[in-house]
Amino acid sequence: MSIFNGFPDLPGPEETAFCKINEVYCCGDARYGNISTFTNSTKNHPKINVTKDFHHHRLSDENISVYVDVEDNLLKKITSVWYKQGFLEALSVAADPNVNKDSKALAVTASYALKVANLFTALRYFIQPHLKDIGPKIVSKYSRTRNWGSAPVKCMAWHPHTTKIALATADDNVRVYCSEVSFVSTLKCKAQGHVSSLSWRPYSASEIAVGCEQGVIVWTVDPNSMFTKPSSSNAVVLKRSGHSPVTDVSWSPNGDLLISCCGADTSMLVWDVAMETAIPLRRVAGGGIVFARWSLTASKIFAATSSIIFRVWDTQSWTPERWCARGCRVVAACWGPKDVVLFAAKGEPIVYALNNTSLLNGARTSKAQPVLDVTKVELSTGDTVGGPILDMCWDPMGRYLALLFEESYIIAVFSTTQLMMQLNVTPCCFISGVDNEVPSTFAFQQNFKDGACLTIAWSSGRIQHFPIIYTDSY
After folding, report:
1. Mean pLDDT score, 50-76
2. Where is the Aladin seven-bladed propeller domain (predicted)?
3. Which whole-number Å values give the CA distances from 109 to 48, 115, 118, 364, in the listed order?
4. Are residues 246 and 212 in contact, defined by beta-carbon separation less than 8 angstroms?
5. Does the predicted TM-score (pTM) go above 0.85?
6. Is there a contact between 74 and 90 (Cβ–Cβ < 8 Å)?
7. What is the structure's pLDDT at 359?
């Protein structure tokens, strides 16, 4: 029997779910209902709606060559394409007889040079297949945000200690919303393009790391400043040759180290931001490092590669244990209390768990345990839920697990309890959008005191706070 049979029914056609309080699934009118009817726990939360005014059309990398000025001479055309798209594209322009009509000798030379370059490129991709995609294609391929390239919100991150949230929007600006102030700080600089991830520095009210195409940008935003657009002098750009685009950034729970990952780099960089230096953690097998997750105690790091291989690093000795997922690469992972890590492989409807005992025993004598089967089913309403997992998020107390699916637009939230090293997962509730909304990405608030609060970015640009509350008297 499917675990989804134990969930409460979805809201009616004109309704939406606002929260869950003491096992009561609170729903109301989708257009005129208000969460304050049920609870004031999110009364001071920032009210966010990413409108179309934030969106600016970005020329796709594939179409940049269309805008080369055809009236320019050949040298200018080649130089322009080289600057914008690279050496190989410049060779293609020089070898194209429709563009290069003035110098046949140059066209023949460029065509032979291009064939040789393509041969070496094909050989390199055969040896290192994770390098096939370049630039934003890598970010789009490995992003856990649905339709990352066109989503109004590319990623989000709650501050670990205050009611402050940062959103990276479609225009690659990072907007910071705080419950204590009414204005919104907008972080933007020239190097900040194709933003992939955000991470607030623990024990700091002002520092946030932004993973993007050129590297990592660490912003310092004074929480007492009235400037809504801090200058680029407040930003430090951390970059290293061969380590771009950055697909994930993550501060340690202690706030002393910053990890950056790149899907095209087999090294995971551990940054000392104050010194602007990085130490690479490299292992040959597995391809590029797609993302990394710190355990809550900062004693371990889960690192997923672009292949079926993933590693769990011990941060005391900085040595890894190598594991293999079944079938395909790990697409999502999250740590919980007692050093339990949950993960899911791409294309699979199964959540696996590794506990501290398994990690100590080593990969040769233990294996990950399946703890949740979310095979896709059709509900009585005709909606489908479940299937391959796109992303997962565990609240800081380890009580609730939220799943985002590739083929379903309904978010499933599960209750989780740990007893004697056994993880028990039970149904909690569904969260669905209004009208034709689909969830893009989500994150649990880190400092919510009344239970758990899941923040969801919908495809319409609407940001929803969904609290799950248990009162002391219940």
Report:
1. 52
2. 136-469
3. 56, 10, 14, 55
4. yes
5. no
6. no
7. 54
